[in-house]
Structure formats: structure tokens, C-alpha cells
Amino acid sequence: MRSLGLEEVYARIDANLDEYLEGLFEMLSQPSISTLGIGIKEMSSLLQRRMEEIGFRTQVIQSAGHPFIFGEISSNARNRPTVLIYGHYDVQPVEPLDAWVSEPFKPTIREGRIYARGAGDNKGQLYAQLMGIKALKDFRGGELPVNVKCIFEGEEENGSPNLEGFVKTHKDLLKADLVYTSDGPVHESGRPMLVFGVRGLLYVELTARGAKRDLHSGNWGGPVPNPAWDLVKLLEGMRDRNGRVAIKGFYDDVKRPTRSDKAAFARIPLNRASVAASLGLKPSQLPAGQRFYEKLMAEPTLNICGIYGGYTGKGSKTVIPASASVKMDMRLVPDQDPEDIYRKLVRHVRLHSPGVLITKMSSSLPSRTSLDSPFAAPIASAVKDATKMEPVIYPSLGATLPDSAFTRELGVPSIIVPYANIDEGNHGPNENLKVENFLRGIRTAAAVLESLSRVTPS
Ligand SMILES: [Zn+2]
């Protein structure tokens, strides 16, 4: 691979560490807990000021919830791609407070790690993007080689309830050739990774009902129906004996993995023995080789999250439950649509257990960017240039993020390159970002923009 010629930029970035840390600490000292509405206004103005200092033309755009912050820097070079960078400035609550070694909004460095709420998720990574942009811009005499737009939201930790609507109503503002995000941790091997998609989600609760109250299982057992058995029977019928989902049409829209997908599954490092040991399972309980990732990334699931009803406390209590419920999630893959899967589930339940109530709790579309996107190789080589490590190509997370807001609504590829350490402890106490990951993130952001300037937008 040809070098990007950025060694001088990387050296300058390393030399500027103290300045970057000072800026990041200011962001981390400002609470911005979305679910409690704490510090959002202060945080969004601080972020806007920092963006303007770098040269962004900014707007704070109100939504039904917390505001979106938009910024834009256009390149003077012609015919260069526009990169839309997504991130979030809100954080999770800090409880349990007494489990923190240092206070969550008083950032401190211990043993090479920056400790604070938001250090990894997502302020440290968001700030690395901004500083990477600044470093590249300064190096190039105030010019960027590509057009850059940023959209930062304040409700990601609330499940991004307004993101899709915002994207729908601001398509012109957000018009771009690709979306680039850094959130989450690097691969567990320590290598960086490029993530090309997420699975979707459908979450439901099913309830079978019997008598109007719990009954004595001796006085009533026999003549009276038990809804727990009805529910178990319904669940049993939802999968065949190989574990395939037996809901009619469930797999109709599942896209088969491409040749590139399969090659990627096979190349992702997997130490089955150590994964199994870390989970307290036998290696034989996990699929081997590329099947592991194929199941995780390219196949949907029908999962029982929990079953309850009747008596589940200590000791014994002899009852026939009045009702029994199950909470289930389905992780969906392209091109499954949670609305369509919900209809198919309802049809299945009506047919086999007409009395069972169904409640839809949440849903999210799957999203996938092709591994053969023209932006994939330049980003991969930029990541390698900046980190001196071969990135892991990750066709999809098993988990769910609102990525479809970009890939479906804007119709553009979306690639996620996480910068945080695997043990960032986000959402928990002692959240942290390794200083070296922060620096690598800044270098990577600069390298990605430089590398993308060599792609001609279509
Ligand atoms: Zn988070």
C-alpha cells in the first residue's frame, strides 16, 4: 500500500497531545446526561463553539428532544467527496457513583487512561474526529481535501428517538457521499476495525391468559387450563428441531451473504476456546470458524429474553398461574423489515394460540453497506496507515444501531471505525479511554479524510 505521506501530521498530532487533552477535559467536565436532561444546553453550546474555532459553519437544530448540532467545512478542491461524520455528545447516567475511583465529571489520567463519563462513549471519539480534521486542515494551510459535514446528536443514549425523523426532514443539509462514525470499541484482538452494518430489532411481549386470578393447584388442578403450558406450546412451535424459526415467511427477505461477506467472516480472528471459556461454555457449544460470524452477522434470531408467570420466588407455592408472559427479541438482517416480521408473528400466534396477547415494544431496521463500496478500501488503508495495524473487516455488528437512518433515508454507505479500547467500560463506572487510543483516533480521522480525497464521487 502506498503511504499517505502523513508522517509529519502524525508527529504533530503526537506533539500536540497536551492541547488535545485540555480540550477534551473541558468537554468531559461538562455533564450531558440525556435521559435526565442534565447539562444538554451547556454541552451543545460548548461543542458548537469548539467546532466554530476549527472553521465549521454551524447550526444548532432543535428537535422534539435534545438539539442536533450540524457543522460544515467545504473544500476548495473540485469534485471531492462529502463525508458526513456522525457522533453524539450525550452520556449515560453515572450511577453507581460510589463505584467510581474518581468523579465521573472530573476527568483524570491514571496509568495511561482518561477516566470520565463520556471518555469513550462518545465525547473522546467525537473530539478525536474534530482534532483529526483540525490537524489535517492546519497541515494543509487551512484547506481540507474533502468536504466535511458533522451531525452530532444529544439523544443517542436514549435510543436516538428523533434521528430518523431528523434525517428525513434534513436530506439536503445532510447530503453526502458517505457517513463515517467512530463509536464503540476496537476489535478484541486490539486491532482496529471497519464495521459495515448492524442487525435490526423487533422486541415483543406475548401473554397467555387463564383464569382471572392465580388458583390453588390442588383445588383446581386438572379441570382448569394453565396458560403457562399454552405459552410453552406456542414457543415450542416457533422453531423446528434444528433451531430454524418456523414462523411462516420469516426468512423470505433474508439476503444471502456475498462472496466478499463470506471471505470476511473467515478472516475475522476467532479463538473459539477462549471465547467459550470466557462465557463458561464448552467450545463445542459454539459454531466453529466462519459459521460463528455468519450466524452473528448474516442470520436473524428469535430469542427468548425471559419468561414469567405464576410463582417464581423462593421455596414453593402451589398455584396455577392466571397468566404467563414471555419477552422476545428478534435480531433482523437485510432485507427483513421489522413491520413485516411483526405481521408474520401476529399471523402465527393467531393461528396457533388465538387468545395470546401480543405487545410490540420496539423495532429498528437492519442496515448494511457493501464491503465492495468504493469508500471501503481507502478507509481501510487510511486506518492501517494511521495505526500501523491491519484492520479487521467486520461486515456487521450483531447488535443494533440506528444506522438505517443514513443508509435508507440518505441512501449512502455508512462505515463505522471505533477508536475506543475494548475495556472502555462505557455505561458503567470508571469509563475510560486509553490516551493511545485517543491519539490513534485523531491520526485515523486525519488519514481517513486524506485518503477519501482520492475517491471521485459518483
Ligand atoms: Zn453509549
What does this structure look like?
Helices cover 32% and strands 20% of the residues. With 458 residues, it is of the alpha+beta class. It has 2 domains: 278 residues, 3-Layer(aba) Sandwich (Aminopeptidase), CATH 3.40.630.10; 121 residues, Alpha-Beta Plaits, CATH 3.30.70.360. The strands form 6 sheets. Strands 1-2-6-3-7-18 form a 6-stranded mixed β-sheet, covered by helices on one side. It has a 4-stranded antiparallel β-sheet with strand order 12-14-10-15. The protein is globular, with a radius of gyration of 25 Å. It starts with 6 loop residues before the first helix and ends in a 6-residue tail after the last helix. The model has no long low-confidence stretch (mean pLDDT 96). The structure holds zinc ion (ZN). The site of zinc ion has 5 residues, from loops.
Instruction: Report how far the terminal alpha carbons are from each other.
Output: 24 Å
Shape: globular
Query: How many distinct beta strands?
Result: 19
CATH homology group of the largest domain: Zn peptidases
The unique ligands bound to this protein are: zinc ion
**Oligomer kind:** single chain
- Beta-strand share of residues: 15-25%
Kindly provide the name of the CATH class of the largest domain: Alpha Beta
Main β-sheet, in a few words? 6 strands, mixed
Structural class, from secondary structure content?
alpha+beta
The CATH topology of the largest domain turns out to be: Aminopeptidase
Rg (C-alpha, Å) = 25 Å
Can you tell me the CATH architecture of the largest domain? 3-Layer(aba) Sandwich
Average pLDDT over all residues: 96
**If helices are DSSP runs of H or I spanning 4 or more residues, what is the number of helices?**
13
Tell me the helix content. 25-40%
Compute the number of structural domains: 2
